[in-house]
Design brief:
Blueprint lengths: L7 H10 L4 H10 L1 H11 L2 E5 L4 H8 L3 H4 L4 E5 L13 H8 L10 E5 L21 H13 L12 E8 L4 H4 L12 E7 L12 H18 L5 E10 L7 H5 L7 E7 L4 H7 L8 E3 L6 E4 L9 E4 L1
């Protein structure tokens, strides 16, 4: 014979007290059907994924509980493995499998990707025909974006926030793939922080991979989000002449709904060139940096609306 049952209101009050304690929420799911119904939306609202061994298996097990998917609103992925720090982890293929299934989360609004903040690519000697292998970090990044580019283009996806931390400043076919677009068409917030080649002999103006990343991959990302973006953050780890004039493509880019613009270590053009091209805006939102004559942040009515901006 069952004992007295707690009123539903009291059970809901209990769940509301532990909404930030995921372990307790998961235990409540096992206590009773009523608590399971109340706890599940809170327990799976945020999904934290890593490459620790078994993460992919756990996701596959979770995939049998299809009602869980609709409660996930935020996914945070952290990949910490580097050449110098190796641990037991899921394979690249296993991790890519998870990202190829992202469309199952029909109410997903935020996707954050955290990659190792290191550049580990081996330098190719110009006198050597041997192409060095790509690093585990770059292999993972390519695999993840290729997986995201396999999403069904008819998916009714409404992602609002995409953050990519420590993206390698190297070409990535998945990013520029047209099939990556369904993930971008509804974005309001886009954050990209970049890790650049750190070898002593690196010269950005002559590096084809670096130039391709900024002028093709990054530009492609922004053009596909231009109509909906309200907040944009682009951050480089070195002073980057990504938008150096003349670059007619970047000059033609407009972000009509942009309200917040944050740029760190991005050099657009020379102060003299800017004053020549946009004389009316030259006195509004132009920042010279020392005697170098370059602009690290431009903000005015010459292409984007910028009520809020910051300069790093």
């Amino acid at each position: 014979m069952l004992g007295p049952q707690l009123p539903l209101e009291l059970k809901a009050a209990i769940i509301n007290e532990i909404v930030h304690d995921k372990n307790s929420l998961l235990l409540c799911r096992l206590a009773s059907r009523a608590l399971n119904v109340l706890a599940t939306p809170h327990a799976f609202q945020i999904l934290n994924i890593s490459r620790t061994r078994g993460s992919c298996s756990a996701f596959k097990a979770l995939s049998h509980e299809t009602e869980v998917f609709r409660h996930v609103k935020e996914i945070n992925f952290r990949a910490l493995q580097t050449k110098d720090m190796v641990f037991e982890s899921d394979t690249v293929e296993e991790t890519a499998f998870f990202f190829s299934s992202v469309s199952k989360f029909s109410n997903l609004r935020t996707l954050r990707l955290y990659f190792p903040p290191v550049f580990e690519e081996e330098h190719k000697d110009e006198f050597d025909d041997i192409i060095p292998p790509i690093s585990p970090n770059r292999t993972l990044q390519i695999a993840i974006f290729n997986a995201l580019a396999t999403l069904n283009p008819k998916t009714n996806f409404t992602l609002h926030t995409l953050e990519i931390h420590s993206l390698l400043a190297l070409p990535n076919e998945g990013i520029r793939s047209p099939r990556f677009s369904p993930l971008l068409h509804s974005l309001h917030t886009l954050l990209i922080s970049v890790v650049t080649n750190n070898r002593d002999e690196f010269e950005m103006q002559y590096d084809d991979d670096y130039i391709h990343f900024w002028k093709t991959d990054t530009y492609s990302l922004l053009t596909r989000t231009a109509e909906t973006l309200t907040s944009l953050t682009l951050s480089s780890d070195i002073n980057t002449s990504a938008f150096a004039a003349p670059n007619s493509e970047w000059h033609a880019l407009t972000l009509p709904k942009l309200q917040s613009l944050t740029l760190r270590k991005l050099v657009f053009t020379s102060a003299a060139y800017f004053a020549q091209q946009w004389p009316e805006a030259a006195s509004d939102g132009l920042e010279d940096v020392g005697s170098s004559g370059v602009i690290l942040l431009l903000c005015g009515d010459w292409g984007t609306g910028c009520p809020s901006s910051s300069m790093g």
